[in-house]
Task: structure prediction
Amino acid sequence: MDFELDQETTMFRDSVRKWVDKECPKDWCRVLERREHEYPQELWDKLTAESFQGLGVAEEYGGMGGDIVMQAMFMREFARNAAGLGWIWGITAFSGTSAISLHGTEEQKRLFLPQMAAGQLKTAMSFTEPGGGTDLLGGLKTSATKVDGGWILNGEKTWSTCADTADYLLLIARSDKNVTRRSDGLSLFFVPRTSKGITTTPLDKLGMRALNSCAVHLDNVFVPDNLLLGEAGKAWKESTKTLNSERIMNAAMCLGMIDGVLEDAIAHMTTRRAFGKLIGEFQALQHYVANIAMSQKQSELMLYHTAWLQSNGKPCAMEAAMTKTLVSEYACQAADQGISILGGMGYSAETDMQRYWRDARLLRIGPISNEMARNMIAEGLGLPRSF
Ligand SMILES: Cc1cc2nc3c(=O)[nH]c(=O)nc-3n(C[C@H](O)[C@H](O)[C@H](O)COP(=O)(O)OP(=O)(O)OC[C@H]3O[C@@H](n4cnc5c(N)ncnc54)[C@H](O)[C@@H]3O)c2cc1C
Result:
C-alpha cells in the first residue's frame, strides 16, 4: 500500500497552488463573486492563459492530458480560493470535455475539443427541468422531434449554470415517447446557445452569484444531426458513465473549501484577541479547528482513493456516492464552525467564510442530493430500492 503522491502529481499540485495564490487571491475572488449576474470573464481568461481548460483533454485533441486524479487536484486547489466560482472551470473543462470525449464522434472531437482546451468554447449542462432534478426522468418533458436533417427541440430547463454565457448547451431531451422504460428514448444534444428559439433567464440565488444559473426556454429550436452526441435514444445509459466523475469533482471542490476555511480560521485565531488573550487560546475554538482538520484528512483520503479507483477503471459507484455526500457535509460543517470562529466577521461580506458557507450548501443538493445518494448507498448494501 502506498499513500504517497507521485513526483509528477506533487509538482503539479504545488504549481497550481502557487498560481492560485498569485493569480486568484481570495479577496479578488470575493469581489468577483459579489458582482451579481456579471460573468467573471477575467477569471476565465486567467485559466486560458495557463491552458487549464485542457487538463484531462487528450494531447492529440490539443489538451494537456491528465486523469481524474489530476483534475480533482486542480479543482481542490482552485476552490481553496475560488470556492463555488471553481465551476467556471468545471462546467466546461470537466463536464463539457468529458461529454465530448466520451460520446462524441471522431469528427466532433476534432472540431470541439481543441477549442474547449484553448478556452475558446464554453459549455453549460442543461439536464434539470422545472418538474424535478432528483427524479430527472419523471420530470423530463423536453422533446426532440426528428425532422429532415436534424431535430426540433421544445421544452424548459432550469438551473442551467452559465447557460447565458455558454457557446453550447449539453442538453438531454426525450426523442422517443414509445418506450417501456423511461430511461430509454432520451438523446443528448450539443446545442449552440445562440440558436433561434432559445431564451435564457438568470435566476437569483444564494451563492456563486457571478455565475448565472438560468431557466432555459426552448421554442422550436432546430439542432442539426451532426450535433447529436452518441446514439439517439441511448443518452441515459451513456451519461451514467460520467456520474462517478461528477461526484468526485464535487467532493474535490468541497475539500478545497475545507482547506480555505481551515487556513482562514487559524489565521483569525492567531491575531484576534478577547479577554486579554488570543482567541486561539480558547479550547472551544481549538476544538472547532480540530474538527475541521479531521474532516479535511478524512475527505482527502476518500477523495483520492475514489479518484484513483475511477482513474484505474475500477468500480467505484458506492465510493463516489459516499465521498460526494460526506465531503459536502463536512464542507458545510467546516464553514459553519468557521463563521463561529470569526464571530461577526464570519458573517461579514469582507471575509470569505460566508462565501464558503453559501457555496458549500449547494453541493449537498446537486448534482445529486445527499438524500438520493444515501438511497443509492443503501441499495448498494443490498436493501430494496426506495425510490
Ligand atoms: C445553484 C444551482 C446550480 C445548478 N446547476 C445545474 C446545472 O448546471 N445543470 C443542471 O442540469 N442542473 C443544475 N442544478 C440542478 C440540481 O442538479 C438540482 O437542483 C438537484 O438535482 C435537485 O433537484 P431539485 O432541485 O428538482 O429538487 P427535488 O428533486 O425537488 O428534491 C427536493 C427534495 O426532495 C428530496 N428527494 C427527492 N426524491 C427523493 C427520494 N427518492 N428519496 C429521498 N429524498 C428525495 C431531495 O433530496 C430534496 O431534498 C443546479 C441547481 C442549483 C440550485
